[in-house]
Amino acid sequence: MKTHLITFGISIVLLIPALIIFFYYRQLKVHRVFMHKNLFISLLLTGVFVTVFEGYFILDSFNNYNSVLEENGPGCKLFYTITKYMRLSTYMWMFCEGFYLHKLIAAAFAEQKGVLIFCAIGWGVPFIPVTIWAITRQLMADELCWTVPGYYEWIIYVPMLAALVVNFCFLAHIIQIIITKLRSTNTNEPAQFRRAVRATMVLIPLFGLHFLFLAYNHKKGDCHVILIFNLIVYSLDGLQGGIVALLFCYLNNEVLYLLKRSYNRKKMVHDITSHMSSRKTRESRTSVSTNMESLANDALARGLKKK
Predict the structure, then answer these.
(1) What's the CA dihedral at 54, 10, 199, 103 to 10 degrees?
(2) What does the alpha-carbon distance between residue 94 and residue 87 come to, in Å, rounded to a whole number?
(3) Does the N-terminal or the C-terminal CB of the chain have fewer CB atoms within 10 Å?
């Protein structure tokens, strides 16, 4: 759990500035970045809710016999339900990223005209399975704020896995399209194909495909293997937000160009302001010196007249 809290904390710290950058620059108000912004928001809110739930409710159950989980109050259940919703929303936005990019590449980079359908999928669709899950838990397993795992969880797991499987198909087809286009341009060098495949590998965390390889839950076997596996799962789960923020914001050439341009502009304004300020200071000092010299000359002249 400590690993989970630390990794989610790292992602939260990296996601907040990335979102500020995306919302600040008008040049980034395009459909591609719109998708990134919504995915980043869902990852950020997931990180916040998971961190609060595990850091307060779960740790409280370890330290107190009559814990908040034992009380099974409506506030605790509502908070956990929102956490589940944010989790599923993240998977839906990963699916939207895959669907958008696949459509963009398959249609020869034709820009998507509308984004309302993605908002409906990303924020609207999760309400349905989460509501069904909450009603089922309330009627059939109303204990410990609904945190006890059971077959009810498959109500949420199925759409999550479906999103990952479809994204895997999208990625495979994207790679196929890129390789086909390379062959059509008479590019038969293996290095070119390897470079193209490596370029698409950065889409794995964006599409959430790393979770496919970690979907199997190791409950039996060597304790050290289980410990290492859980450490990897919790680390990748918590760090996903930070990884996509690095790959698609901080290391993005367009973002780096805009940040550099803003820095150069502010530096230029600062230099001009400093130059004007120093010039005014010099002029002020020169004026004071001239006035003092004039006063001294007047005093000397009056003294000579008296003599």
Answers:
(1) 50
(2) 11
(3) C
For residue 246, the SS3 value is: helix
Cβ(67)–Cβ(56) below 8 Å: no
pTM recorded for the entire structure: 0.84
Q: Is the pLDDT of residue 294 over 90?
A: no
Are 96 and 163 in contact by the 8 Å Cβ rule? The answer is: no
Contact (CB, 8 A) for 8 and 49: no
Percent of the chain with pLDDT over 90: 48
Residue 12's nearest CA partner among 42, 48, 38, 37 is 48
Identify the sign of the CA torsion 269, 273, 279, 282: negative
Cα–Cα dist 63/188, whole Å? 63
What is the residue whose two structure tokens read 């869902």? 42
pLDDT confidence of residue 287: 60
Count Cβ atoms below 10 Å from residue 122 Cβ, excluding itself: 24
Q: Please provide the size of the chain in residues.
A: 307
Residues 182-208 pLDDT 10s: 777 765 666 666 667 777 888 889 998
User: Amino acid identity, residue 159?
Assistant: P
Note whether 144 and 72 are within 8 A (CB): yes
Closest among 34, 205, 204 to 112, alpha carbons compared: 34
* 147: its two tokens: 């945190």
pLDDT, residue 219, reads 62
